[in-house]
Each structure stands twice: as C-alpha cells, then as structure tokens.
Amino acid sequence: MSNPLLHLQALPDFDAIRPEHVAPAIRELIEENRALIARLTAEPGTPEWDGFVVPLTEAGERLGRAWGVVGHLHSVKDVPEWREAYNGMLPEVSRFYAEVGQNLALFDKYKALAEGPAFADLSPVRRRIVEHELRDFRLSGAELPDELKPRFQAIQEEQSQLAAKFSENLLDATNAHAEYVRDETGVAGIPADALEAARAAAERDGQAGWKFTLQMPSYLPVLQYADDRGLRERMYRAYATRASEAGKPEWDNGPLIGRILALRDEEARMLGYRNFAEISLVPKMADNPAEVLAFLRELAAKAKPFAERDLAELQAFAREELGLPELQPWDIAWASEKLRVKRYDYSDQEVKQYFPEPKVLDGLFGVVRTLYGVDILPDEAPRWDPDTRFFRIERDGETIGHFYLDLHARDTKRGGAWMDSARSRYRGPAGVSTPVAYLVCNFPGPVNGKPATFTHDDVLTLFHEAGHGLHHLLTRVDELAVSGIHGVEWDAVELPSQFMENFCWEWDVLSAMTAHVDTGEPLPRALYDKMIAAKNFQSGMQTVRQLEFAMFDLRLHSEVDATTGPVPVDVVLRLLDEVRREVAVIIPPAWHRFPHSFSHIFSGGYAAGYYSYKWAEVLSADAFEAFEEAGAGRGSLLDRETGERFWREILAVGGSRPALESFKAFRGREPRVDALLRHNGMVTT
Questions:
Q1: Among residues 257, 269, 137, which one has the least CA distance to residue 600?
Q2: Which superkingdom, per the lineage (predicted)?
C-alpha cells in the first residue's frame, strides 16, 4: 500500500496515516528536495521564476505539508506512538532546513535572479518573495564561513528538539495531577456542569466523587467558583509549578529554558547581532527592541493606575465582604467573580447557559456570512478524532477553502487554542489549490447528552481563532510564500484575530447566537446590558498582566547574558521579579514557576515576539473603529461594504505587501492607539 503522506494533493487521509508512515515518507521527500536543489544549482545561467522558483516551491510544499500533518498529529494526538514518530524525524527535518538555509549555491542563484534582467519584469509580489528569500538566507547563516556552518546547523537542530521536549513536558505534567474530592462540602460553589464533567471523570477512573485536573475546562471552574480555599490553593500550586523542579526531574523545563536561551544567543551572535531579540525583529514591523520596550512602557504607564485601582477595590471587597484580610493568588479569580456578581448582578456561569455550542457556531458563521458574503457548510473528510468536524467555505457556489474544527479538550491534546495551515492557496501549473486550516481549542465537551456550553471568554477565543482562520482562508494571493498568513510580519498577524473578538460584544451578534441550554430563550437584553457594563471589569489588571509577559519575554532575549552557557533558572526568575516590580500589581508566590509553562516563547514561535499581541491590538482596535463609524446609528456594525474593504485590503493580500501598507489602504491613515484605550476603558475623562 502506498504511503498516504506522499499523496497529499487532496486532503490528508487521517484514516490511513499511521506513525510508521512518517520516517519513510519524510525521508523520501527530503531526498526529493535535495536532488532538485542539486540539479537547479548546477544549471548554468541566470535562473528564472518558472524554471527555478516554481519547482522549488512545489517540492518544498510537498515536504512542508507532509511534515505539517505529522506536527499537527503530535499536537492533537500526543500518544507515545505519534510522539516517537515525530521526535524520531525532528532532527533530520531540522538538519535539512538548516542545510537549505545555508546553501550558498542556492543563495547565489536567488541573488542572480534578483540582479538579473528579468527581475524588474516580475510582479511586485514576486519581487517581494525573492527579497524575503534573500533575507531568510542571511538569517539562516548562508553567509557564514564554511567552518561555522556545522555549528549553526547543530544549534537549529538542538533548538527544535528542546522546543518539542518543552511542550511534551508541559503536557505530561499537566496530565499527571488530579484532585479527587469525595465530600459534597468540598465542591460547594462549583457549577453543576463542571461537577457533572468531574463526576464522569472520576467514574472513568473507578473512583467515587469528583475528579479535577489541570486541563482548562476543569481547572478554571475550581479557581473561579470553589468555596473550598484549600482546594483552590492545591490546584493553583499544582498548576503554577507544572514542569518545574517541584515535579518529576525528567519533566523539569528549567534546564531546557537555560539551554534554549544560550543557543538563541549563540545563533544571534554568529549572525552579527547583539542578542536574539534583534534577530527576532528583523522580519517584523517593529525596528528594534528599544522601540518595542518603549511601546510597552508607554502602555504600562497608562494602564498601571487602572490596575492598581482594580486591585485595591478587590482587596477591599475581599476584606469587607468575604472575610479575607489578605488576598492570596488562588483567591483572585474566586473573589473577582463574587465582586462581579455584587457590582453587576450577574455571573459568568449565568451567561454561560446562553451559549450552547451549536448556537455559537451558527452565530459565528452568520457574522462571517454577513461581513464577507460567504457560506460555511458542513463537509466530509477523514479526521483524526471522531469529535472533530470539517467545513467548506463557499461564495456564490464556488469553494474558497475548508477547515477542520477540533473544539474540545482531550488529555492527548496540548493546551491552548490555535489555528494552523493544513494547505495554503497556490496557483501552479496544475491549477489553484484552495486553502485548508486547522482550528483547535480546548473547550469543555458535552456532558450527559446536553450540548457543551461556552463562557463568554470561550466565545472570544473561538472568534479569535476564527479570525486567524479567515486570514488564511480568504486570501486571494496566488503565490504560496505570501498567501494567507505566510509572509505577514509576526507582530501584525494578530490583527484579524483580535479584530474578530470585538463582534462578541455587539448586541445584534450576541442575541443571534444565544439560546438558553434548557429553555431555548435568547440572551435577555438586561443581562447583555450588565455584560457591557462589566466589559472593562478589571481591564487594568488584565492589561498589565499581558504587558508583564511581553516585557519579560523581550528583556529575557535582549538583556540576559547567555554568552557563557545555559542561563541559570534563578537568573530568569530574578528578571521576571524585576519586570513584575515595574509593571505588575499582583506578585505571585516565590515558588511560582511561570517561565516553565511559557510555551509561547519556548516552544511556540513567539520568542521576543509576545509583544505582538499588544502591538497588533492597536491595529485591530483601530480597524474595528472603521466598523463603528460605518454602523453608527444603524443598530449594527456588521457593515458589508466595510467588510468587503477589510477583506480586500487586509485578509486577501496576506503577506504580499507590508502590513502597514495594508492597514493604511484600509484606514486611509497611520494607526492610532486611541481606539484601543477607549475600548479598554482606559481613557481619563
């Protein structure tokens, strides 16, 4: 039987793909690429687009798609067989890409293409692709002396392995902890749906009572609602010390953090940069670390007074109303929920009953249909888990793209939510390939035959990931290297995702996507008004928390001395303490090990780039303001004309032009921070 990873012209056959297919398929595709590169670099003369870039693109895509399927399964089906298959090939794949990036003959061919007579005749998009290639060759060490290239390759290979191990340690440590509660008084306050899921989990283990884990759908209700302070503290401590020295030594991410930082620093210095942050910013909108740090500090200066006010109010409430003279970190979510109920007369749990999963999906698809005139329809394709679904996007009967939807938490799926490319739009000699995306979340699943219900935060997360998906799926660019999210500056890639979150606060959107899970009644206007009144509840504290993460990440990669080897974890923790003293209002206990689970920067591609969330939030808030202007006085911001312009100038163009040019084409001016501050209630009047 032929290897299904070698036949991905259509959709991946997840029913047929097995771990034993990985090594032979990936090795064959690597050798195919090596042979093609050898042939093309040996050909005399100046290369041309059709005879040089096109075959390289198509061969690279065959390998990239196959390896992408393997990486995806490693993330959503992390069983020993898939973990072994992924890790078994990871060094060879990393070595191959490092080898390509340093291939001087290939680099010379691209330079010859850029300097050749035909370059001026290429479209601006193709010229941009060639310029990106030249930049990436330099960042991959192509211009390094030959004697240094093996070391540079070894650095890339080890970094890939450490990133994978970091993620696996975190998943294993998350899955290892459970709290069994057998006394009803011990679960007081926890909502009924969370208790049903906890009881079912205990029964699967042959235990009485309720089982709580560190997976988000189980962990969050305990921290937010459990009246048992001891249970909250045990869960908080277990979560905060995952993958640290407090657990199994083989799952401790501390040594990995130190080694990763040293390797990144060595890589940067080999390429002539002073630190890794400088190299990370080369393909981004921001020019240098100082500019980013100034941006973060400006926001912190505006946000911290609001955060201090938020905390003082919470502390006073806890002291006077809850009998807690000293608010501990494991009390914050619980006390905040009590304060929200007291001040705004509603709870997250009450709102959650109005967001059953089917209705939320219908609402999301309705927003997309209204804004962009496309239909999202159920479709069929092999999937990796029976819980996942598959959809087709059409406009006027024409298929634009597809996406897989994997919403519910599983203990074999890594945490968080994300969108990834399964296939990108490309017009080649064989015609057009439409894009396909993976949308993955970790929401609670259905319990006892009732549909899953989502918190409003879950709905925001779903819209966020759908925004990434639309960026990938609604592209009109035919060149693979810059279609969808490819080639978009990383600090602008969150624009479409954060933009979509704004619609989750609009009455016409919410009223159309709610139906009480028991009665079917839509969200009452009075409850919506309370949600709006509470929209910026503790927004100051939430903002400085994100700024803390971003500043820690940037300073870790630009200020910490990693020139003498692995960075001791206490150095990392001291920097975090320093950042917290500058921007935070809540200081976690000394035993807290946040860096050990900061997978965004140690295994998720956000190294020296976590600031992107805040950077892009300025763009997304300003872009949404265009819809506010168009819909003013009309009762709805779902303006089709503005949606078409957003599609045309932002979503459709992907990375085919600089993000700032796309923003200005949509807004007609440079971005401003005013809308973000107004949306977050941080404008002093």
A1: 257
A2: Bacteria
Do the Cβ atoms of 417 and 465 come closer than 8 Å? yes
**Rg of the Cα trace of the chain?**
25
Residues 402 and 391: beta-carbon distance below 8 Å: yes
Residue 601 one-letter amino acid = I
Nearest residue to 259 (alpha-carbon basis) of 599, 579, 564: 564
Taking alpha carbons only, the member of 478, 365, 367, 482 closest to residue 432 is 478
pLDDT recorded at residue 685 = 53
Name residue 314's amino acid.
Answer: L
| Tokens coding 38 | 């050898």
621-639 pLDDT, tens per residue?
999 999 999 998 888 999 9
H helices present in 241-356, as ranges: 254-270, 276-281, 289-321, 332-344, 348-352
234: its two tokens: 């045990």
96-113 pLDDT per residue, tens = 999 999 999 999 999 999
Q: Which of 84, 69, 72 is nearest to 406 (CA)?
A: 72
Beta strands in 121-254 (DSSP E): 178-181, 210-213
- Listed in sequence order, the residues at least 6 apart from 22 whose beta carbon sits closer than 8 Å to its beta carbon are 5, 70, 85, 86, 88, 89
Of the CA atoms within 13 Å of residue 643, those in its CB half-sphere come to 19
For residue 568, give the nearest of 592, 590, 595, 546 by alpha carbon. Answer: 595
In the chain, what percentage of residues exceed pLDDT 90?
94
Coil vs helix vs strand at 403: strand
CB neighbours of residue 201 within 10 Å:
19
Residues in a beta bridge with 377: 392
Give residue 43's pLDDT.
96
Backbone φ and ψ of 103, nearest 5° = -75, 100
Q: What is the pLDDT of residues 636-664, one digit of tens each?
A: 999 999 999 999 999 999 999 999 999 99
CA-CA distance, 430 to 408, in Å (whole number)? Answer: 37
Q: How far apart, in whole angstroms, are the C-alpha atoms of residue 621 and residue 677?
A: 9
CA gap 374, 402 in Å, rounded: 12
Hey, what are 78's tokens?
Answer: 């992390």
Q: What is the pLDDT of residues 317-341, one digit of tens each?
A: 999 999 999 999 999 999 999 999 9
Cα distance between residue 192 and residue 187, in whole Å: 10
CA distance 562 to 556: 10
Residue at token pair 């060879």: 92
Structure tokens at 227: 């009246």
Structure letter (DSSP) for residue 450: B
Look-up of token digits 């097995």: 18
Tokens of residue 71, six digits? 């990486």
In angstroms, rounded to a whole number, what is the distance separating the alpha carbons of residues 193 and 217?
Answer: 10
- Token pair, residue 593, equals 């090990």
**Phi, psi dihedral angles at 619 (to 5 degrees):** -65, -45
- CA atoms in the 13 A half-sphere facing the CB of 388: 24
Active site residues: 465
343, two tokens: 């001040």
Distance separating alpha carbons of residues 167 and 371, to the nearest angstrom: 37
Judge contact between 579 and 548, C-beta under 8 A.
Answer: yes
- Token readout for 60 is 């690279």
